[in-house]
């Protein structure tokens, strides 16, 4: 049976930290599906389409990874629809651990057949978060090293629009 994992997240935007987890996670499963949250939250920085396009472009080099718009449903229900028996997530620090532990435990309560696999963030990226990068970007700080090229290019296009 194919081992399929779902990596759900907001990815607003996708960072090199996320991409590192995706590249490492892809080696563990036959197929890894990135579920980009369809977030109606107006505070989302990238539009849903921008997220989908940039995430797809950023993972195009990884053969067994695909990207979907994740409907607003229970993650375990989405996983079951996709035939995914694993959920992939990442932890950078103790704060993430507490959060991820609660979500993993709750998902196990909702469906005991779905296993959460959590990868430790690489030391290279464990200080990187979408929210910190957005804050630095607003004030013109250099964040290029922490973003996949497609994401960085899309962000800079936004700056051009803002400044016009
Ligand atoms: P969510 O809103 O679901 O937490 P995020 O896009 O913030 O979505 O994060 C998705 C997953 O990626 C989470 O498990 C988070 O802990 C993990 N993650 C975020 N940043 C990094 C990073 N720099 N390195 C590794 N994993 C990360």
From TrEMBL:
Pfam families, A to Z: CTP_transf_like
Binding site for substrate: 10, 42, 75, 89
This protein's UniProt keywords: ATP-binding, Coenzyme A biosynthesis, Cytoplasm, Magnesium, Nucleotide-binding, Nucleotidyltransferase, Transferase
Entry coiled-coil feature ranges: none
Metabolic or biological pathway: Cofactor biosynthesis; coenzyme A biosynthesis; CoA from (R)-pantothenate: step 4/5
Segments forming domain Cytidyltransferase-like: 6-135
Gene: coaD
Subunit structure: Homohexamer.
UniProt keyword Transferase, yes or no: yes
GO molecular function (one): pantetheine-phosphate adenylyltransferase activity
Reactions this protein catalyses: (R)-4'-phosphopantetheine + ATP + H(+) = 3'-dephospho-CoA + diphosphate
Cofactor: Mg(2+)
Principal localisation: cytoplasm
Organism lineage string: Bacteria, Bacillati, Bacillota, Bacilli, Lactobacillales
Residue sites binding ATP per the record: 10-11, 18, 90-92, 100, 125-131
Protein localization: Cytoplasm
Site (Transition state stabilizer): 18
Function per UniProt: Reversibly transfers an adenylyl group from ATP to 4'-phosphopantetheine, yielding dephospho-CoA (dPCoA) and pyrophosphate.
EC class of the enzyme, as a word: transferase
EC number: 2.7.7.3
Family indicated by similarity: Belongs to the bacterial CoaD family.
Protein name: Phosphopantetheine adenylyltransferase
């Amino acid at each position: 049976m194919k081992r399929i994992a779902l990596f759900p997240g907001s990815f607003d935007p996708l960072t090199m930290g996320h991409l590192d987890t995706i590249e490492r996670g892809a080696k563990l499963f036959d197929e890894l599906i990135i579920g980009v949250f369809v977030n109606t939250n107006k505070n989302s920085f990238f539009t849903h389409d921008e997220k989908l396009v940039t995430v797809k472009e950023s993972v195009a080099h990884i053969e067994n990874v695909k990207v979907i718009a994740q409907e607003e449903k229970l993650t375990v229900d989405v996983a079951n629809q996709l035939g995914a028996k694993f959920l992939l997530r990442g932890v950078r620090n103790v704060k993430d651990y507490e959060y991820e532990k609660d979500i993993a435990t709750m998902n196990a309560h909702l469906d005991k057949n779905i296993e959460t696999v959590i990868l430790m963030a690489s030391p290279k990226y464990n200080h990187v978060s979408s929210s910190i990068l957005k804050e630095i970007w607003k004030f013109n700080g250099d964040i290029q090293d922490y973003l996949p090229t497609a994401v960085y290019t899309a962000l800079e296009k936004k700056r051009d629009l803002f400044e016009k």
